[in-house]
Amino acid sequence: MKATRLYLLLHVLSTTAVLVNTFDPVTTTVVIGIGASLGRTIYNYLHESCDSKWIAFNATALEVDLSRKLFGQHIASRIILKAVNGFMKNANPKKPLVLSLHGWTGTGKNFVSKLIAESIYKEGMDSNFVHVFTSTLHFPHPSQYLTYKSQLQQWIKGNVTNCERSMFIFDEMDKMHPGLIDSIKPYLDYYDKLDGVSYRKAIFLFLSNAGGDSIAQTALDFWKEGRNREEIELKDLEMLLSLSVFNNKESGFFRTSLIDKNLVDFFVPLLPLEYRHVVQCVMAEMKDRGVEPDQYLADKLAKDLVYFPKSERVFSVKGCKTIESKLDYYT
Ligand SMILES: Nc1ncnc2c1ncn2[C@@H]1O[C@H](COP(=O)(O)OP(=O)(O)OP(=O)(O)O)[C@@H](O)[C@H]1O
Ligand SMILES: *[C@@H]1O[C@H](CO)[C@@H](O)[C@H](O)[C@H]1NC(C)=O
Ligand SMILES: *[C@@H]1O[C@H](CO)[C@@H](O)[C@H](O)[C@H]1NC(C)=O
Ligand SMILES: [Mg+2]
Q1: Cis ω on the peptide bond leading into residue 25 (within 30° of 0)?
Q2: CA–CA separation, 233 vs 265, rounded Å?
Q3: Amino acid 156: pLDDT
């Protein structure tokens, strides 16, 4: 793909050069002018830029992806679709969109972030306007948080100045220094502009395992009462989630006033995945690899995972996380 584009570019440029040689000065100027604007168009075609050619929200794509590719997350699906849709359709939002995703490991927090990015940016997660910060990777040493702080603020400011439709994903938010979280607070708030930069079209996603246990407990209670998983509603989790989020002394998230100040627009709970969802994940992974989905193998792999509680084996402890590598082993 890239090679063809490059060939096209070279071809256009060499044609322009030949033309320039054969015409008088006036024509040459015109030809060079056309060549330059053509060059710019081609550059824009090849190189991602902050415009509607590269950034165009497709609501249908998000809806289809959430319903077909994301398994067992009816609450998260619904909130995300509504929130992103509403925000992207609003030409003049009052503040950036801030979503906080919570759940056990392997339930789809990064996966759903990827789906959101793909519905907005042509280049998806590879876009120059999508930025992922992982606490343990980018900000590993608590003692250095002051350095990280000014660095992070500069990055956010620089990137939003470049493109107001920027997306920032903070992974492992629960392992982030409270002071560092504090430092991004101004960007999440209802300011018209900060130092001449408007952050109101940006999107912030916070991913964490915080509250995962209480979400799982609620899901388990429903299961024990013989109730359908799909009956779980946001209101069944909201209270618990904010309680466990506030009271958890481990993570910095909670001691900051992100929550008091209502800077987070939506708390999005991801439910622990059941056996049947794991099977769906394996089948999807096989399809992705271009091999014929094999129900027998999917069952075999799913059965080998660890489930909680031990006796009833209801929820996959690692969700769909280790499936990729397991599949290599089984095939
Ligand atoms: N609900 C889901 N539906 C479909 N696939 C899923 C789901 N959850 C996880 N997966 C698959 O498992 C992989 C790992 O999930 P992901 O990285 O999103 O987990 P996570 O919630 O971010 O976990 P962690 O808390 O450990 O970071 C994904 O790439 C995806 O292929
Ligand atoms: C939006 O996504 C849908 C579903 O993936 C696709 O059929 C459609 O062509 C897309 N629209 C645009 C404008 O890209
Ligand atoms: C944008 O963020 C990235 C980190 O994702 C950083 O490396 C880069 O320097 C930032 N750009 C600007 C202009 O600040
Ligand atoms: Mg993750």
Answers
A1: no
A2: 17
A3: 98
Instruction: Please give the radius of gyration of the chain, using alpha carbons only, rounded to the nearest integer.
Output: 24
Residues making up the annotated binding site are: 103-110
CA–CA distance, 60 with 193 (Å, rounded to integer): 32
pTM of the model: 0.90
pLDDT digits (tens, 9 = 90+) for 110-120: 999 999 999 99
> Ligand 4 centre from 207 Cα, in Å?
7
Nearest CA residue ID for atom 13, ligand 3: 158
Q: How many CB atoms lie within 10 A of CB 141?
A: 9
Contact 10, 122 (CB under 8 A): no
Q: What is the pLDDT of residue 39?
A: 85
Average pLDDT rounded to a whole number, residues 160-177: 94
Residue whose entry in the numeric block shows the structure tokens 């699906």? 77
Q: Across the strands, what pairs with 315?
A: 274, 308
Of 48, 125, 127, 131, the residue with max ligand 3 atoms within 8 A of its CB, to mutate for a pocket test, comes to 131
